[in-house]
Amino acid sequence: MSKEEFVVAMGESGVKVDALLEKGNRDDAIVILQGLATKNPDRKEPWGRIAKIQFDAGSYSEAIVSAEEVLQRDETDRTAKSIRAVAGLRVAAQSLADLRNDVELKGNARSDATALASVMRETLGEDVLVPPAELEARKKREAAAAARAKRVRATPVSAPDKAASVPVTGGDPFSLLK
């Protein structure tokens, strides 16, 4: 589809999508835009419109996926970046609220934090969720020292050059040739 044909198709689809959205028929509106996106896989516009519709409907995880589709086609698109960021924050906030409402997290703040950290450690398979800064710095220093030691061991030690070890006597550079 040429650029001109796409612009016309996007305009016609936009009118249909707007009419469907006014009636509250979000799913059909998205189907139309997905069809346009399928016919024009290099174009970001259908995906951007889908992302906005999903975001406005509160389908934040779907909006993130659609915004990623836009960013695959244009990594500088600010609207897609904004949708992805805000939707991501809203998903995170909802996840924290869900955890907060968990039956096991009904104690004081400290016991809730401990229980939440335990759940997160178990889920992530990590003993420490956020390592202390000094531990990270020590690991970096140890890794750098190990790399230096390996580099020193890998450097071959050659025998000193005989000519360099024999001093030139009397300032005569040709004395070694005699």
Description:
It is a single chain. Helix 3 runs antiparallel to helix 4. The mean pLDDT is 80. It is built from eight helices and no strands. The chain has helices at residues 3-22, 26-39, 45-56, 60-73, 78-100, 109-124, 133-154, 162-165. It is flat. The protein is mainly α. The protein has two domains: 3-95, Serine Threonine Protein Phosphatase 5, Tetratricopeptide repeat (Alpha Horseshoe), CATH 1.25.40.10; 102-153, no CATH class.
Helical percentage = over 70%
The DSSP helix count reads: 8
* Secondary structure category: mainly alpha
Straight-line distance between termini: 87 Å
Task: Let me know the number of strands.
Answer: 0
| Fourth-tier CATH superfamily name of the largest domain | Tetratricopeptide repeat domain
Estimate nothing, just give the exact number of structural domains.
Answer: 2
Order of secondary-structure elements:
HHHHHHHH
Strand content: under 5%
Q: Quaternary state, please?
A: single chain
Features:
single chain; about 180 residues; mainly alpha; Serine Threonine Protein Phosphatase 5, Tetratricopeptide repeat; 8 helices; flat
Topology overview:
Layout: H1 3-22, H2 26-39, H3 45-56, H4 60-73, H5 78-100, H6 109-124, H7 133-154, H8 162-165
Summarize the structure.
The chain is mainly α and 178 residues long. The protein contains eight helices and no strands.
